[in-house]
Structure formats: C-alpha cells, structure tokens
Sequence to fold (80 residues):
Amino acid sequence: MEAASVQIKRMRRNAVLRLEMAQACVLALLAAGWSPAAAENLPVTQAETLTGQKLEFPLALAGKPAVCVFGFSREAGDKT
Fold:
C-alpha cells in the first residue's frame, strides 16, 4: 500500500514537471518573437474581404491578429 502511494506521488510530480517544462518552452518562444506564420514570407496579393472590400494581402493585416481563409478551385487554377 505504501509503495503505491509513493508511486502515485512520483507520477504526479512528473506530470507537474512536464507541464511546467511545456509552459516554459511556450513562454520562451513567445518572448523570442516566434510566430507560427510570418507574414513577411507571403507575396503581396490583391484580395477581397467577405464584405467586398479590396485590400492588399498581407499588408492590410500587418501588426494585427487575423484569421485568414483561402479558397481555391480547379477552374481558378486554369486562369493563372
């Protein structure tokens, strides 16, 4: 019985250590300015919002959080 409680404590401690390590890694990446999708790597393209507003993507989104949805079709691919 005593060995089981020691094992449970060890498992909890290991879980807490893994969580703290994951949090530290995320904070380090954020502090370093890591971005999962760097906009500077995307070419400037004419775009249209869902409301019909014309803009140059990604310049119009610079410095703002955004969600981008891209749509493609087989017909559109033949026109380029």
